[in-house]
Amino acid sequence: MRNGSSVSPVREILSKVPEVTLGFWIIKIAATTLGETGGDAVSMSLGIGYLWGTALFAALFLAAVGIQIAAKKFHPGVYWLTIIATTTMGTTLADFCDRSLGIGYAGGSVLLVALLLSSLFTWHRTLGTVEIDTISTPRAEIFYWVTIMCSQTLGTALGDWTADNERMGYLGSSAIFGGILALLAAAYFTTKISRVFLFWVAFIVTRPLGAVVGDFLDKPHDHGGLALSRFAVTGILLAFMGVFMSIFPQRPAAKNH
Question: Which of 14, 26, 162, 183 would disulfide-bridge 252, Cβ 3.0–4.6 Å?
Answer without folding.
Answer: 14
